[in-house]
What does this fold into?
Amino acid sequence: MLKTRLCEMLGIKYPILQGGMAWVSTAELAAAVSNAGGLGIIGTGQALPDWVSRQVRRARELTDKPFGVNVMLLSPHVEEIMQIIIEEKVAVVTTGAGNPGKYIPALHAAGCRVFPVVSSVALARRLERAGVDGIIAEGLESGGHVGELTTMALVPQVVDAVRVPVVAAGGIADGRGLAAALALGACGVQMGTRFMCASECTIHDNVKQMLIKARDRDTVVTGRSTGHPVRVLQNKLSRLFEEMESRCVPPAELEKLGVGRLRAAMQDGDVEMGSVMAGQICAMVSRVQPVAEIIQEVVTGAEQVLKNNWTLVVGE
It folds into this structure.
């Protein structure tokens, strides 16, 4: 059975984390992933503390396995959300858009493992010094907010730079991706886009169908001029964003255009003027299927790839 030190650290069966995507990663999806042997993660985004509290308690009703919460450190509610996580003794916290350093002592005291998402070696080193338990190295192939390095380039450099476990993210959808991540030195993977088409994912069916129909070059990165580039599926909104950026519209006006667009897509099903954040692997998602089936396909596929590659070494 495929098992790494990440599994032992987090108390999970398979080295697979589900990305904490805002308006996507609800308690239902997170619990399903945890029940299937991975680590489900609730995405908080800009959500209100009461919503986060309800989601954590709902996840506890749906699974007795470990699960996590993703915290966007730029959220205006970050202090209250961290307190909820500490009080509820959530097993794992993943973070984005900042340094979780000041929260680490309290999180550790509550038994929480801290895994920040990074897009550079320098940040990975800084956060290791701050006391994090692991690093999620995310390449620009991912959906949502992106950095500048690809997963293939970033992961081995982060692995070489830190001693804590490294999880690879960005552009991973199947067993080949998991096997490749392990070959690069990672202890596991985080997948987001693949889980968007899980049966247990509560996003609008319009988004799921858009993902299923997507081709390999259907994502674009918008918002580079704002300093917060985001990968999305092309639609009317992305084209408008690109047109405004070409006219050098002030970043503040561009940021205003994006307010509420993610929820409009994921919850209301507006796939034309909503922000459909998705990774470059979207064309590899071909159908809606249960979480347990997705995870089993990924694990079985990785084991087969690793066995096949072993025969290249031993010559059998």
The chain has a mean pLDDT of 94.
